[in-house]
Write a structure and sequence with these properties.
Distance between the termini: 30 Å
Number of domains: 3
Strand order of the largest sheet: 1-2-5-3-4
Structural class: alpha+beta
Number of strands: 8
Oligomer: single chain
Length: 276
């Protein structure tokens, strides 16, 4: 998977959160949310919130590898930042909070490196088997659970695909539980990463939190040339920037920013300053 660099000329791309998130004061760091950290399982994945038992985790720099507890199993990820910078609405309920087990050791990092190699082998094997079976699906990514118990295959398809024979063959070859997850083309682009026609890293892999609806009307409101080749991103859909670059006065719910808040984070002078 390709790593995406940040742009120094666009400060809101330097973090892995929504551009609408605010810095907190030192007094706010003492609340319960200060015991939470944000972790990503993959460079272009979603941000997850975990509780912290070890104070050393709170002092770790962004990018530090950690081992977390997820759905009864251990998983490998990287710290993005302290979760007190997240919106309260994005914090999971207290009864389902997962926890950071520990900072990753050299053995953990070495194990994850070997798993990456196995993921590449599984990707090649699955691609060949998909061609052999003539399945109308496109494999996007393969991910192995940190405990080695399962392999998850992410794919895109235009129609429903019967992959039962494929799953049986993969399970026999890799001796692990096989999961097939169908994703959309936007999710595929976010997962793989890349650079847009503007020459910068794609917005969905840097600072966008969610995919909001984008319409051709937004391009008309900005007096852009209605050329599908110029208005489409790498995913083949309308570019997400058509929405967050739309003037807040245009009436769109999320105009002016790629945030999750209803009404957009450009509502109010303070919000305008935070998004610059």
């Amino acid at each position: 998977m390709r790593s995406i660099g940040m742009s120094a000329s666009r400060p809101w791309l330097t973090g892995s959160f929504c551009s609408c998130e605010r810095e907190v004061t030192s007094d706010q760091r003492t609340d319960a949310s200060a015991l939470l950290v944000a972790v990503k399982m993959m460079p272009a994945g979603r941000v997850h919130v975990y509780t912290v038992d070890d104070a050393a985790v709170l002092e770790a720099r962004p990018g530090t590898p950690v081992v977390v507890q997820e759905d009864g199993m251990t998983a490998f990820g990287a710290i993005v930042g302290l979760a007190h910078r997240l919106n309260v609405r994005r914090m999971p309920p207290g009864d389902v909070l997962q926890r950071v087990v520990r900072l990753a050791t050299r053995e953990d990092v070495s194990l994850r490196s070997r798993q990456h190699q196995r993921e590449r082998e599984a990707f090649r094997a699955a691609t060949l088997k998909i061609r052999e079976h003539g399945l109308g699906m496109r494999l996007s990514h393969v991910e192995q659970a940190f405990d080695g118990s399962r392999l998850v295959f992410f794919f895109t398809a235009d129609v429903r695909v019967d992959f039962r024979d494929l799953v049986r063959e993969l399970a026999a070859d890799f001796h692990a539980r096989i999961e097939m997850r169908q994703i959309g083309v936007r999710d595929e682009a976010k997962m793989l990463g890349g650079y847009g026609t503007c020459g910068r890293p794609m917005c969905c892999t840097t600072f966008l939190c969610t995919f909001e609806p984008v319409s051709i009307k937004m391009a008309k409101q900005q007096d852009l040339t209605l050329n599908p080749a110029k208005l489409s991103g790498l995913c083949g859909r309308l570019k997400c920037c058509l929405r967050f670059e739309l003037s807040p006065g245009a009436g769109a719910a999320h105009a002016g920013c790629g945030c999750e808040h209803g009404g957009g984070c450009m509502a109010g002078e303070a919000s305008r300053r935070s998004c610059r």
